[in-house]
Design brief:
The complex is a heterodimer of chains A (about 120) and B (about 110). By secondary structure, chain A is mostly beta strands. Chain A contains no helices and 13 strands. Chain B is mostly beta strands and about 110 residues long. In chain B, about 0% of the residues lie in helices and about 45% in strands. In chain B, strands 1, 3, 4, 7, 8 and 9 form a six-stranded mixed beta sheet that branches.
Chain lengths: ~120, ~110
Amino acid sequence: QITLKESGPTLVKPTQTLTLTCTFSGFSLSTSGVGVGWIRQPPGKALEWLALIYWDDDKRYSPSLKSRLTITKDTSKNQVVLTMTNMDPVDTATYYCAHTPQWLGASRYYFDYWGQGTLVTVSS
Amino acid sequence: QSALTQPASVSGSPGQSITISCTGTSSDVGSYNLVSWYQQHPGKAPKLMIYEGSKRPSGVSNRFSGSKSGNTASLTISGLQAEDEADYYCCSYAGSSSYVFGTGTKVTVL
């Protein structure tokens, strides 16, 4: 059974760097084709894709946020970490991590398992 | 990479069918048959309902179906039930392992 859980600060100040950790179980991020992504959702607003990291350490970022994001993985700990620099109140959102599956070693392009999300508020 | 366009709201009576559209561009929806749909109840994480345009994950009711024509994907819910009342989001692969989500649609069961 695949599960993911996000953790990190609930409150950050403007200009600070946010670091979020996704701890997962039920799969290995060393399995060919597997990926873990981050998606956020401001209160009352739509989902927004942020970043994704694959089993082979290939990293992809939203073009609009690329300069502020870094995604890394620790396969031995079953964790994926997202950092976002220069936080602003508009970055207040629930941040989700999600699993992207593989089939016969090839990546599939959808999010089949999601964490419960963690609300991050940016305020001084 | 702009958000895919969905109607803000769609409503229907129990037992009816409704369709939610998701309009993108030739760079995302139109180029790939890789649209997925997610259901989100208030305060909950999104749940995958449709992937790769028209495929249903195990456990998802066959009342949910997906299709695509040109730059527009659609999600149809047939035999509408009270439990289907939720927000729905489409998501398309947009090349180079990037993704774009839709603006979201609130489904109301009258």
